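Give me the 3D structure for Palmitoyltransferase.
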Amino acid sequence: MGQRIHFVVDPQGWCCMALIIFIWLYNTIFIPKVILFPHYEEGNISVVAVLCYYFCSLFCIASLFRASVADPGKLPESPKIPIAELEHWELCNKCNMMRPKRSHHCSRCGHCVRRMDHHCPWINNCVGEDNHWLFLQLCFYTQILSSYTLILDFCHYYYFLPLKKENWDVFAFRHELALLRISAFMGLIILGGISRLFYTQLMGIFTDTTSIEKMSNCCEDISRPRKPWQQTFSEVFGTHWKILWFIPFRQRQPLRVPYHFANHV
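Predicted structure for Palmitoyltransferase (265 residues):
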C-alpha cells in the first residue's frame, strides 16, 4: 500500500511553495555560513549544534516536499461500496460521486478528499486523511527551525564571543547585519503564523474534528464518544509507536483498513 504521488496544478500554490523554499534556502545557506561554521571553528559552539541545525533543516524540507506531493485521500472515480456500508456514504452535490461521510469536496483541486481538513496553498495540496501527519510534521519542524534560527541570531550578537577571524571579502560577512536582520524578521513571521496553525491542528486532533467541520459547525457526529488522545494521534500518524510520529521518511499505514482504502492508499 504505497503512497501515491499527487500533483496540483495551481500557480498560486506554486508561488506560495516557492516563497517557503526560498526562506528555507536563505536560512540553510546564510545561518551556517555567518554563525555556525565561524563560531564552531573558534570553539564557541560544538559540532552537535551544527548537526542539530542541519537535521532540523533536513526534516523540515523533507516533510514539506512529502506533504506537497502526497495523495491527501483522493477518492477513486468508481468506488466499490458494500451494501452493508451504504449508510456511511453520501452523495457529493458538486461532483455527483459517492463519498464516505466526513469527506469534503475541494473546489481548488476539483475532487473529494477523505476527512479533508483544509486546502493549504503553502504546500499546494489538500490536507486530508493520508497526508495530515506530514503536514503536522511540517508545522512542528518549521517551528523548531525558526526558533533555532532566532536563538542563533540572538546569541551571535549578545552571547557568543566576537569572531576573531572574519573574511570581509566574502559577501556574507560584508552584509552580515542586514542578512541576519532579514533572517530574524522572517523567523518571527514564520514562527508566529506556524505556532497558531499548529495549535489549531493539535486541538482538532484532540477533539477528532477537522477544520472544515469547525468552521461549518455541521459535524453530525459531534455527540459521538470522545476518543483518547493517544488513539486519535495514532490514527492520524498510522502507528502507535510515538517515536515514529516524528519521522517523515516512512510510509503511513492505516491502523484499520476500511473498504474504501482497498485500492487507494
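Residues 11-71+132-159+171-217+226-246 form one domain. Let me know if you want a second pass.
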